[in-house]
Backbone:
């Protein structure tokens, strides 16, 4: 699986922006055929995206298709699959059934990244993504569509933090991803002029166990990459833990700088080194 710290959305009906997006340092692009493309532009966007996928592949390219039950998804796939995207982002995913349904339509080693919290039913399927297909590249979530689906007037408090229902959706995505053994990826930070807010948000995601995040604007990419890249200090600390256990074969709990380290610390250190 490729490294997925930052995944930058680009509307599929903006060929200029898709080409530009290749140069912005994002680990992956998500060229979009869904919400950022008006219904009247879907056909033109399919053509533009297929053409864009023909460019020399300098970064991982996902295509977000329309939902499986939209009546648009099969035409989206027919247009883009011949151009071999690296992966498909599935909006309004509802657990293993929708993952298996998309899996059956794909060939080769194409990845699938579900957006897993956009309908009420989706919330009850977040623990079901494991063991379905090796295509599963991660799990991500969204806080924009669900409020509309349930008649909520907002998903955020006045200070920008999520209301309780969306904190739950975020937490279940985090645990659902890890239960399935794939990366948990944070949702977009829509206020793209608020770089400090983004940095703080991404840092909280990293702290909580997300290993990457989606972006909507070029200015967000480097901030997100930095937030999800282990620092030299963190790498050194993780290496010290791994070295300590290697030097003490058979030991379960050891002490490092006056603190206990045992199996979960070793596991976390190994995971961090794998990402560094
Ligand atoms: N990918 C590539 N380039 C982008 C970009 C993106 N997602 N968003 C902005 N840019 C470029 C613009 O083309 C512009 O380039 P230029 O200086 O060469 O002209 C530059 O960045 C500055 O853009 P700006 O004027 O700040 O943004 P905007 O007001 O034109 O657009 C958005 C704002 C939100 C509409 C735009 O960022 C966007 O389309 N984001 C993605 C939306 C999306 O895909 N949503 C679906 C998932 S939530
Ligand atoms: Mg949406």
Residues:
């Amino acid at each position: 699986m490729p490294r997925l710290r930052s995944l930058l959305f680009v509307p599929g009906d903006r060929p200029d922006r898709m080409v530009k997006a290749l140069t912005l340092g994002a680990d992956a692009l998500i060229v979009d055929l869904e919400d950022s493309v008006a219904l009247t532009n879907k056909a033109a966007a399919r053509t533009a995206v297929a053409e864009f996928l023909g460019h020399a592949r300098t970064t991982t390219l996902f295509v977000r298709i329309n939902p499986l039950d939209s009546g648009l998804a099969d035409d989206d796939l027919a247009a883009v699959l011949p151009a071999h995207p690296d992966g498909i982002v599935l909006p309004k995913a509802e657990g293993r059934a929708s993952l298996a349904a998309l899996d059956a339509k794909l060939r080769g080693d194409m990845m699938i990244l579900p957006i897993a919290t956009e309908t009420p039913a989706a919330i009850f399927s977040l623990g079901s993504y494991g063991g379905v297909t090796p295509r599963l590249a991660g799990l991500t979530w969204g806080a924009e569509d669900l409020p509309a689906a349930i008649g909520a007037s907002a998903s955020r408090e006045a200070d920008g933090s999520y209301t309780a229902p969306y904190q739950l959706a975020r937490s279940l995505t985090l645990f659902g991803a890890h239960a399935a053994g794939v990366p948990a990826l944070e949702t977009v930070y829509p206020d793209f002029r608020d770089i400090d807010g983004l940095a703080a948000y991404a840092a909280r995601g990293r702290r909580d166990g997300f290993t990457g995040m989606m972006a909507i604007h070029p200015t967000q990419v480097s901030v997100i990459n930095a937030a999800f890249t282990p620092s030299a200090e963190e790498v050194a600390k993780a290496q010290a833990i791994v070295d300590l256990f290697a030097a003490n074969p058979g030991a379960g709990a050891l002490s490092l700088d006056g603190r206990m380290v045992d199996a979960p610390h070793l596991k976390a250190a190994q995971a961090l080194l794998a990402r560094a």
